[in-house]
Amino acid sequence: MSDKANQSLAASQPSAETEEMTASILVVDDSRTSATKLAKAVIALGHRAAKASDGGEALRRLGEEEFDAVLLDIVMPGLDGYGVLEAMGSDDALSEIPVIVVSSLDDETASVVRAIELGAVDFLPKDFEPPILNARMEAVLAAKRLRDRELTYFRDVDRLIKAAHIIEAGAFRPTELAIEDVSTRSDSLGRLAIVFQSLAQEVYVREKRFDQTARTLRGTILVLIAGLIFGIVPALGRMTAALEVPSLGVVVWANSVAAVACFGIGIVRGGRPKIRKRHLGFFLIWALVLGCFYQIATVTIASHVEASMIALIGSSRGFMVFALAALIAVERPSLQRLLGLGIGFVAVSAVLFGQGGGSAADSILWLGAALLLPMLLAIHTILMTWRPREIDAFMTVGIMMALSTVMLAPVAIATDTMIWPSAGGGRVGMIILVLGLASGVAVALALHIVAEAGAVFAGQIAYSQTLAGIAWGMLLLNEILPLIAWLAFGLVLVGFWLVQPKKAGEEFSATIPIGR
After folding, report:
1. Of 239, 263, 265, 427, which one is least surrounded by beta carbons within 10 A?
2. Is residue 477, in this structure, part of any structural domain at all?
3. Is beta strand 122-125 parallel, antiparallel or unpaired with respect to 99-103?
4. Rounded distance, CA 284 to CA 444, Å?
5. Residue 49 pairs with which residues in a beta bridge?
6. Where, by residue number, does the polypeptide cross the bilayer (predicted)?
7. Which parts of the chain have pLDDT scores under 50?
8. 141 found inside a domain
């Protein structure tokens, strides 16, 4: 290139080229001399240049790298310039890259016309002057930048429209909108994206707070109902003892009733269970903990420790669940939740001591053994967090009760504590029926509470169960419900509100009601 040409090229180069104005240009020419000349001219204009020696290499590089423009020779061995233009035109991504054809063909007009028809945007002779290259490059790149901005704008508009549809659909999470980078724009589109994000986040936080309140109310109601149902068990147990019927035999038949009832409800609700091999371990452990160990321990300990003292010790179940959940990181512990559990424990303790619970006759050994009962129930509560969610709650309880029946029946027969339908007459049969239904429904409710509100919140069933046991004693056994029990009930409700269900996770979706 002559000194005069270099001076002209330097004069045509912008004096303050910014990084945003720097382009990446692909030079495609089978002639090393021509390719080098074009690349140097491109670099002298302040752009980056890459070279390809034929059409095949050019298409490969275009597919792997990003280029703002292509300087394309027409006559090349193998895939010529026309072939490259045809391939780029059939590719949605490559068709947006502007191409300036460079040719020294004799029939220049015909070759230019054909190249333009195939998608080229301009023509440059091989014997070009630097100002001509600069002018055509700037025109092409300016059009490319404008087109890129238009495409980006329309893509961002499309993303905002999709975000609006997500919000309008009624359930969303802010991360689903995927408009974070759109909000960085400095124009009205960016401000609109910020409004969308702010709206979505505000609604999400509000709905999540409402969801927490609703789940607290639902959880409290379910805990009270489950405790009310569970609470009838001690009264039924005392009625059974008055009839001198072996408790273990009653448990076997009650578990059988619970299994049949829960199977029936489960089939109506969700059809037959689809039990997998991976589920067997859970059911066996659960049946051993709740259906066997707990039932046998209850029967044994109840003959040595007064029922009211067992109820008081059982109230520690909430603390044990809290400790286990924190230890194995099932739920997040907090001082507020611990305070809520403490309030419930104090309330129930006051009622039981007011009732004259506990006696000096209860040996320290048996009182210590009684701690096994709330511990087993705490383990049972934690186990429920891992139950197979694809199996209906009632069906899950039915399977567990059936397994526990199979395990306990041989023990009852071997210890001669098994009872048969004729024992005790119809009254025993009614007790077994009510006990079985109560146990099955209460455990199924507990499963639902654990799934929705968490194990720590569900652990408070112990408090409502104790208070309900006193109430059932009043109704069935003519016991008197003192005023302190009602006050304790109010304190237990305060405890529920402090403990709070587990917070909704990332799966939570907010909902905006939009009239259509």
Report:
1. 427
2. yes
3. parallel
4. 17
5. 25
6. 216-236, 248-268, 280-303, 309-330, 337-358, 364-386, 393-414, 426-447, 454-474, 480-499
7. 1-19, 358-361, 423-424, 506-508, 514-516
8. yes
